[in-house]
Amino acid sequence: MLNARQTELLKLIVEDYIKTARPVSSNALCDIMNCSSATVRNEMAFLEDTGLIEKTHISSGRVPSEKGYRYYVDNIMVPKELNGDDMLKLQTLVHNHSLMLADYITKSVEIVSEMTSLTAVVLGSSSSENLISKVEVVPVTENTLVAIIITDKGHVEHKNVIIDEKVSSDDIKKTVDLINKLIVGTPIDEASSKLEYEVKPVIGKYIKQSEALYNAFYNAFNDFANQSFTMRGRSNILMQPEFDDTEKLRDIINKFEDKELINSIKEDENGINIYIGSENDLSDEVTVIKTKYSVNGEEGTIALIGPKRMEYDRVISLLDYITKNINDR
Amino acid sequence: MLNARQTELLKLIVEDYIKTARPVSSNALCDIMNCSSATVRNEMAFLEDTGLIEKTHISSGRVPSEKGYRYYVDNIMVPKELNGDDMLKLQTLVHNHSLMLADYITKSVEIVSEMTSLTAVVLGSSSSENLISKVEVVPVTENTLVAIIITDKGHVEHKNVIIDEKVSSDDIKKTVDLINKLIVGTPIDEASSKLEYEVKPVIGKYIKQSEALYNAFYNAFNDFANQSFTMRGRSNILMQPEFDDTEKLRDIINKFEDKELINSIKEDENGINIYIGSENDLSDEVTVIKTKYSVNGEEGTIALIGPKRMEYDRVISLLDYITKNINDR
DNA sequence: TTTAGCACTCTTTTTTATCGATTGCTATTT
DNA sequence: AAATAGCAATCGATAAAAAAGAGTGCTAAA
Predict the structure, then answer these.
(1) B207: pLDDT confidence band, cut at 50, 70 and 90?
(2) How far is B301 from B268, CA to CA, in rounded Å?
(3) CA-CA distance, A138 to A177, in Å (whole number)?
(4) How do residues B103-131 score in pLDDT, each as one tens digit?
(5) What fold characterizes domain A128-226?
(6) CATH number given to B84-124+229-328
(7) Separation of A22 CA and C11 C1' (Å)
(8) Is the entire prediction scored with pTM above 0.85?
(9) 3-class SS at A232?
(10) Of A137, A258, B48, B86, which residue is the least packed, with the fewest Cβ within 10 Å?
(11) Overall average pLDDT of the A284-293 stretch
């Protein structure tokens, strides 16, 4: 355990490094610490022994280690009250009651991503938990129409379809009714196979030329099941000074393209969870902060990804604020 | 004008540089040119005087200049016949007749972007040329619904809406009918203001509690009007060796985020147009290749963006192939 | 317990040296 | 007249050496 001065010192080192991205020297802190640089150095030596800070080379200033960030986050940092500016940006969203849940969530992380220069990810409830609650078809022209799929969680997708012109609107209606009858209540990820094994054999009997429509829904279900997350501010991370070498940059960008990996971010613990460097599966170079939201039976995860050197106190407050507001919907 | 040997030399230099990304020496070419390196050097000196190639430093090999690429593209290069592999990847798409136009175009550039490692942009017909052909509403739950907007060019957008629960389905129908009656045929970018000045005053008289629905369409029209392009393979450019320094990388990524700038890419000349380095407004470091498509009255631009050092012969063929296929739809 | 002082270490920057690739030019050959 | 061989000259890239600067660790004194 650290004493008061050691705690203060670690706090100063972490916060200074977060601000400047440069190793912190003993000299730079002795004014604030009200003691000589030698004293600061003695305490620094202790913090280094404890593994909370480290040098980039033998005679450099100190930077927080992973463990140091962890200690800072767990024991020192207090979430930062949102300032007027931040608050204002979020208020207009929070008070907009005409957004449906999914849109509201997307918009929330979009704003937070922009405010923090971090990359934000929303991992909604998995497609096995989203049940089809309705399919609908809207005619566009003689031979095109829009197939609409709506889930019980309120997610909506549309897909444009070209149909064989010989299909009558009556047949379309019959097909849609049939699909609705057989497929409502099915999880999205099972919908396409259910369509294949239960609807397809029946559909042919009653309705000729139903193939195009069948295919449209088949593909729509598949696409819907596979689009599993939303990502905002992808390129924000490029602007961080720690990613000033192309090697790291390309590595991270490639990770961002890896759907499996991003999906594995999904959180199952409650509260705000912070994974610093090697604690996450993405990269030792980043911190992932994530939390679950849960509203009207829909559960999902919101994650923020950025350099380990991030403003934890502010980011946590922002994330907390938006998830609370999502939960309260 | 260049003689046969000079032409051959420029061709070799450009193509070698495109392949290797390293300055081309006289020695490397004398075998193929069937003469000594001194002779190659003499010709190189001539090409350099003409401004077609340049050195990276006083004793380096040569790289094509902007003017050199231009000459190569205009006078030397012949579009490369698509190989079996490329052909195959495109064929399955071309023969897929169940995709509506907009989807087909998006899918096309997606594939080409992937095949070429370039960034692809589709700039559809401007929102002033897209006329509303139909709006429709599908109920989801008691107090939510999906508003659907369809344009005469076959573009479809949906927007989720939360309505005041007091609105009866009959009132919704009336509202939609009214909007349809007054707004069909209006260009998208004028739709929201027309809604405000012509529909809003009327709607209140007949239907109480119409505000939510009105707002939904108002926003939907606005959003629809402003989403003006599709971009694929954004991060491909990161992988090119010429963008191995973070400075350039960040510059380009920022340009990609600039909607105005991307929108200004729009092409008005016919055929495939190539803008090398300073010839385009994006960056001296890139080439933009673009062409118009035009089908069923819908006109738009497809653009490919990549390093100046790109396989012009192959890229041009691919772009030509997909636009031809789009035009033939 | 704190601090002043100083040697020590390591990075960064600058300088110098060496090597190798490639050119431009000149003199020679074809 | 055109092509080439030969060679000095130039510059990048790599390595080594030197100098400057930042910051530490340790010792001895306050």
Answers:
(1) low
(2) 8
(3) 13
(4) 899 999 999 999 999 999 999 888 888 88
(5) Enolase-like; domain 1 (3.30.390)
(6) 3.30.450.40
(7) 14
(8) yes
(9) strand
(10) A258
(11) 96
